[in-house]
Amino acid sequence: MTALVVLAAVGIVVLGITAIVIGVIDSRRAGARRRIAAERRLAWERRQRQLHGGPYEVDAWGDEDTD
User: In angstroms, what is the C-alpha Rg of the chain?
Assistant: First the structure.
């Protein structure tokens, strides 16, 4: 019975340590991911201007306007 409790406690500790390690690694990479996302968005906006000849805007109410 004691072995089962020790095994469960070790498992919880391992899960906790794993969560901490993943959190630290994720926080270190967050800045790089934000920079990459910004670069991709700028590239996408440039492509949209080239394809559509201006800023890309969506009128969400345009399809429902029946006046």
Answer: 25
